[in-house]
Write a structure and sequence with these properties.
The protein is α/β, with parallel strands linked by helices and 290 residues long. Helices cover 46% and strands 11% of the residues. The protein has two domains: 61 residues, CRISPR-associated endonuclease Cas1, N-terminal domain (Ribosomal Protein L15, Chain: K, domain 2), CATH 3.100.10.20; 178 residues, CRISPR-associated endonuclease Cas1, C-terminal domain (Four Helix Bundle (Hemerythrin (Met), subunit A)), CATH 1.20.120. The radius of gyration is 21 Å and the shape is flat.
């Protein structure tokens, strides 16, 4: 998985290349790259998109360092095995509870309380999150009156709530990019349900208090003039320094593995495609491999 910014992506002499403003070519071995993040300042030719589609490389149009996701090619549909696996875990109450318990364990670094339903664990989680906000506020000397914001009116929130909203939006962007790159569906969640980004919220919550929320409090403590801008820049920097994308995808596999099932196999009576998949130069781990 790589990031590209400020360049023209094209195909030259049969190779996938990035051409910068000085005309310098940088070759990208697209067959061994699962996902290319297109940051601001990039342009992509028709030939490059065609080649990426042929080899199963996902293109995702993002903000700097992935703090926003604007669009993606082949969203969520190229790996049917991953989608079926995720759906089976989410639709079975027992399997879903196992995944939710694992999410709780990862988030709080301790096993979830025994004999609790998903709804009960959600309530316990909410209480612990409120406590974490209070501790961070005390540590950074920020006045805290609770998580209060209006999605339709940004200015109604105080500075710390604006900072937290901006920070979590950045984390949602890079989490969605990771979910798409791994071939899962952003809408099929376990704790969060019924929203287009339910699974994004689930996965982002695993990393939120280790990454972007402390950044939000640190920025808010300085009483900045443009809190959302400062938070976005700070999140961009921490994403690059921590190489968070390399942690998110294994994190997804880790929590889903708690269901202790294998991806469903195709029924024996399934009919093979009338038009077989074309040969690609991508390896078995690429999105076209399912």
């Amino acid at each position: 998985m790589i990031f590209v910014q400020y360049g023209q992506i094209d195909v030259k002499d049969g190779a996938f290349v990035v051409i910068d403003k000085n005309g310098v070519r940088t070759h990208i071995p697209v067959g061994s790259v699962v996902c290319i993040m297109l940051e601001p300042g990039t342009r992509v030719s028709h030939a490059a998109i065609r080649l990426a589609a042929q080899v199963g490389t996902l293109l995702v149009w993002v903000g700097e360092a992935g703090v926003r996701v604007y669009a993606s090619g082949q969203p969520g549909g190229a790996r049917s095995d991953h989608l079926l696996y995720q759906a089976k875990l989410a639709l079975d109450d027992n399997l879903r509870l196992k995944v939710v318990r694992k999410m709780y364990e990862v988030r709080f670094d301790e096993p979830a309380p025994a004999r609790r339903s998903v709804e009960q664990l959600r309530g316990i989680e909410g209480a612990r999150v409120r406590k974490l906000y209070q501790l961070l506020a005390k540590r950074h000397g920020v006045q805290w009156h609770g998580r209060r914001y209006d999605p339709k009116d940004w200015k109604k929130g105080d500075v710390i709530n604006q900072c937290i909203s901006a920070a979590t939006a950045c984390l949602y962007g890079i989490s969605e990019a990771a979910i798409l790159a791994a071939g899962y569906a952003p809408a099929v969640g376990f704790i969060h349900t019924g929203k287009p980004l339910s699974f994004v919220y689930d996965i982002a919550d695993l990393f939120k208090f280790d990454t972007v929320v402390p950044v939000a409090f640190k920025v808010a403590a300085r009483s900045p003039v443009n809190p959302d801008k400062e938070v976005r820049h700070a999140c961009r920097d921490i994403f690059r320094e921590s190489r968070i994308l390399k942690k998110i995808i294994p994190g997804i596999e880790n929590v889903l593995a708690a269901g202790e099932i294998k991806p469903p196999e195709h029924p024996k009576e399934s009919v093979l495609p009338a038009i077989p998949n074309p040969d690609t130069i991508g390896d078995a781990g690429h999105r076209t491999g399912g």
